[in-house]
Amino acid sequence: MTDDAEVVWRPDPAAVARSRMAEFRAWLRDEGLVDAADYDELWRWSVAEPGPFWGAIARFFDVAFHTPADDVLPDVVMPGARWFPGATLNYAEQALRAGDGRGDGDLAVVFRREDGLRSELTFGELRRQVAAVRAALVSAGVGRGDRVAALVPNAPETLVAFLATASLGAVWSSCSPDFGVRAAADRFAQISPVVLVTCDGYVYNGKQVDVRPTVAALRAQLPTLRAVVAFPFGGSAVPNALAWDDLLAEHEGAALEFEPVPFDHPLWVLYSSGTTGLPKGIVQGHGGIVLEHLKSAGLQLDLKPGERFFWFTTTGWMMWNFLVGGLLVGSTVVLFDGSPGHPSLRSLWDLAAEERVSVFGTSAPFVQACLKDGLTLDPSALPSLRAVGSTGAPLSTDGFRWLSRNLGPSVQIASLSGGTDACTAFVGPAPDVPVWLGELSRPALGAALAAFNEAGHPVIGEVGELVLTAPMPSMPVSFWGDEDGSRLRAAYFEDFPGVWRHGDWVTITPRGSAVIHGRSDSTLNRGGVRMGTAEFYRVVESHPAVLDSLVIDTSSATVTDGELLCFLVLAPGASLAEVEPSLRATLRAELSPRHVPDRFLVVDDVPRTLTGKKCEVPVKRILAGVAPDQAVSREALRNPAALDPFVTLAAR
């Protein structure tokens, strides 16, 4: 780790001067709170004084409190921090109130589907539809604290239903319609929903998929349902459901009202992957999400009123919740439903050009796929684009180079990392900090990020556990059903008391940037040399014949000399005999001799969760002899049949 890393993007001084970050720093100075000369000074103040910082965020963005808070943060403790006690507000009111680019005629939503379907909603239309659906939910008996579950595509109707739910103080929870019955029921049955919002089908990779059988089976497993509301996404009616268009017509002209709720009142329930048991229901509050997403969208991404904000996501991934937070700062959210690769990997880039997207968000695997496909882009076709966000996995240095080469020096490469647990990024971009090759620019404001060694001491320039040493308001209010908080404490606070352990390996560089190395529970520990899996995949998947890979270190506390196994998905026509020698030589040269696998094995597919993450830990447990049904829930996988070769290997 050196201090002379390649810079792939530099802030433009004129753009920095126009940024909301510069405006915020000037406001803080005028208010007598802090005179921060640059981002780093501002970050140090934000984590040293979390109460004043988050109070300043609320005031700067003019959060619409109904009842003011008694204090911002009476005690800086984790777990158990109490934010803005006594305050009441409503997320939907903050997202839908007029001003800051949210006039009735201002554009709120652009929707695109892979088959060419397109629609728009102005803020005025969005408010009217939310009011109508809110009235429909009330007529179905939905009130404050009730749960509304949704098996839905990334469509305008989904956004309307969410905002209507939030306006009532009811609790939202969504899954993508490609979730199977068991996967959806494992999530929704925990929260006892009273209404299910759904559709008849969706379009993916050129095919129409009918989800009505899934809806029928899911209803049978949710006995608390009082009503099902369905919109015709594929053009057909859902039997025994309230029709969306009928509800809009019936409640046309309803008043748009907002239920004031306490700061930590549940807004939504997100879920862990559920690969090793029932998914954990992660509850986040109205106030914490409002503040965190105002900061993330308004300061870190510098989104402004009227700018168009896109992220490729489904409703089963926290990035959907993050994306709709763009409404909080008055930006236009661009929703897309379908395959990112249909009819080609150029499709989303064409969407960005046609819809004049300013901030384009995607995943590291998508960038890697574009690179492997040899895709080239014309920067002049994307004149509105100023930042490309990447998350979901560490972005490789090759991915950085591909983005830089294809988008030009004016587009910021905004690689970020965080988690569903807080529905945000802990480390990522800022408008006034450079981007270095392979690195995430800075810890986010308010995120007291550190790398801890095994003794619990912060380290610089070394791989350590990613931790947060101070609370953030979007951290979970609770896990659903975890009445005494024991599961939440076990998830984050067992290793370092009073400190949040996130479960990622990270290196904080001497210049203050960060490198994410992958999950710390799937680390490669060979001869005492620890390495995250991200570095391994960067090397292996740069080979043109390798489509995907999975690396497993079978060593453990009791088996210190286990094998290092590398499973490869090869391109058609490629053979292991041709590929393996090259991989061995490259891994030896770029990583270390200790990180050359003992064996390479070819598989047809790599098992992934429903949100696309590689199943490293479940496969390791299967290979260690754990019964497959105890190691992983197949219903939590996008491709459950991909497990079969690993089960067969373990049986040998």
Descriptive report:
With 652 residues, the chain is an alpha/beta fold. The protein has a domain of 130 residues: 2-Layer Sandwich (GMP Synthetase, Chain A, domain 3), CATH 3.30.300. The chain is 31% helix and 23% strand. The strands form ten sheets. Strands 4-3-16-15-17-18-19 form a seven-stranded mixed sheet, with helices on both faces. A five-stranded parallel sheet has the order 6-5-7-10-11, sandwiched between helices. β15, α12 and β16 form a beta-alpha-beta unit. α3 crosses α4, α6 crosses α7 and α6 packs across α10. Keywords: ATP-binding, Ligase, Nucleotide-binding.
Could you name the key traits of this structure?
single chain, 652 residues, alpha/beta, GMP Synthetase, Chain A, domain 3, 7-stranded mixed sheet, 5-stranded parallel sheet
Q: Which stretches are poorly predicted, pLDDT < 50 over at least 5 residues? A: none
Please name the CATH topology of the domain at 522-651: GMP Synthetase, Chain A, domain 3
Percent range for helical residues? 25-40%
Give the amount of beta strand, in percent: 15-25%
How many DSSP E strands?
33
**Assigned CATH class of the domain at 522-651:** Alpha Beta
Mind summarizing the main beta sheet? 7 strands, mixed
CATH H-level name of the domain at 522-651... which superfamily? ANL, C-terminal domain
Coarse shape = globular
Second CATH tier, the architecture of the domain at 522-651: 2-Layer Sandwich
Overall structural class, as computed from helix and strand content, comes to alpha/beta
Average pLDDT metric: 94
Widest sheet: strand order?
A: 4-3-16-15-17-18-19
Spatial gap, N to C terminus: 42 Å
User: With helices defined by DSSP (H or I, 4 residues minimum), what is the helix count?
Assistant: 21
Evaluate the radius of gyration. Answer: 24 Å
GO molecular function, one term: ATP binding
Domain AMP-binding enzyme C-terminal: 539-613
Family: Belongs to the ATP-dependent AMP-binding enzyme family.
Organism: Jiangella anatolica
